[in-house]
Amino acid sequence: MTNEAPERLGKYEVRNEISRGSMGIVYLGHDPYIDRPVAIKVALADTLNDKESGARYRKMFFNEAHTAGKLAHPNIISIFDAGADEETCYIVMEYIEGGETLKTYTRPNNLLPVEKVVEIIFKCAKALDYAHRQGVVHRDIKPSNLLVTKDIDVKIADFSIAHINKPDSTTTQHAGMMGSPKYMSPEQLREESVGTQTDLFSLGLVMYEMLTGKHPFAAENFSRLVNRILNEEAPPLRDMRADLPEVLEPIVRKATAKKLEDRYQMGLDLAADLSKAFESLERPEQDISIEEKFNSVKKLEFFLGFPDSEIWEIIRAATWTDYTRGEDIIVEGDLDDCFYIIVSGKVAVKKGRKVIRTLTTGDCFGEMGYLAKTKRTATIAAQEDTALLKINSTVISQVSLNCQVRFLKVFLRTLIHRLSATTEKMSQDV
Asked: N or C: which end of the chain has fewer CB within 10 A?
C-alpha cells in the first residue's frame, strides 16, 4: 500500500488531494449514490504498517469515526462513513468547500473583525457544549482543527484523539499527553484526567490568538512553553492590541484560567458571556445603574409575580439597549432570535411604510423569532427614545430553572394573547 491517491474507496470516487497531516491524507471524493462531494481521510500507509505503533495508530484513526460519528451539530463536521478497502483505512466526512482553517485568521495582518471573532468563538462554545453533553471531549482544539466555510462559518473537525467521557463507553481511550502543546491546558500538560474545561481552555487560547494575532504563551522551546502555560498569566489583550473592547478581557481571562474552579464550567457558560459581549460591541450600553434597571423592570406587567431574585437574574442575563427616535430595532426580512420587552418608550410595527401597530412600555415583540429564529415579517422602529430588554434563548438558559419556567409561562401567555388578537383582527377584516 502506498500513499498515492486511489481511484476509488468502497463506493466513493476519489478526485484529488486536499491536504495531509499527521493523522492522514484528505482527498476530495464523490458519493455517486447521493451525488454529493465528500472529504475522504485516508490513513498513512507507512504509519499504519509500523510494527510498534501501527495498531495504536489504527485505533486512533478510527476513533474519529467512533466519536464525531455520534454527534450531529451544524458547527461540527459530519461523519458519513468509515471502513477499509483492502489495506486502505478511510473515513468519509462532510466536504467544506474552500478548505481553510482558522489558522489563516490568526496572523496579525489577516485578523477578522472583532464581532466576527466573537461570533465564531460563540458557535464553537455552543458546539463544544453539545459534544460535552454527549460525553465527547475533543482534547485537540486549535486553529487548524477549526474549518472555515466560504461565508466564514465554522466547523469543529479532527476528533481523532477525542475522549468519550462515559462510564459505559466501549470505545478505546487514549491516555497520556495527547494534543498540540501550544493549545494544551495545564491539566493536559500535567497528564492529569481531562474533561470539558480542557476544551474551553484551548478555545480561549484560540480566541486570544484570533483577537491579537499572537499566542499568549509563545515560547522558543517546549520547556519554556510548558512553564508559561502552567505558571504565567496571559498578557492582557489590550497590551497586545490597544483597540480591543474591555468587555472581552474578563471572558478570555476566565476561559484560560489555570485552576478549574476559576474557569468556565461548560461551553454554554462561555457562550452566554460572549452573547452579552456581542450586544455591547454592536451597541455600547449607556451608563445606567443596575438599581435603576431593576426598578424600571420590576414595574412592568410581564414581571408581575416574579420574585426580586429572579428579576435580578433576568436583568443580569439580558441586554439593555437604547434606541433614539426613528431608529430601526428590527428590519423586515432579517434573521433574529431575540425577544424584546419595552422598558420605556414607544415603537411602531411597520409593513413597508405603513404603520400597522404601536407598542408602548410593558409591551413585547419578537416572539416568533425567539422561538424559531425565522425571518422577521415586519420592521420595528422607535417612535421616541426607547429602552428595551433584549433576551435570547442562550442567555435565558443561564438563569435558574425556576426562573426559566416562570419566564416561559409568561412568554407563552404573551404569545397566545398576541395570536388571539391577530386572529380576531383578521376575522373582522374578512
From this structure: C
Q: Indicate the number of domains in the chain.
A: 3
Residue 319, domain extent? 290-429
Is 3 a member of any domain? Answer: no
CATH of the domain at 329: 2.60.120.10
Cell of 402: 425556576
What tens digit of pLDDT does each residue of 118-163 get?
999 999 999 999 999 999 999 999 999 999 988 888 999 988 777 7
Catalytic residue positions, numbered: 140
Query: Measured between alpha carbons, how far apart are the two ends of the chain, in Å?
Result: 74
CATH number where 60 lies: 3.30.200.20
- 8 A C-beta contact, residue 30 and residue 36: yes
DSSP for residue 302: G
Kindly state whether residues 77 and 127 are assigned to the same domain.
Answer: no
Residue type, 345: G
Confirm whether 229 is domain-assigned: yes
Task: State whether 411 and 306 are in the same domain.
Answer: yes
DSSP 104: G
Q: Residue 40, Cβ neighbours under 10 Å: how many? A: 29
Provide Rg for the chain, Cα atoms.
Answer: 25
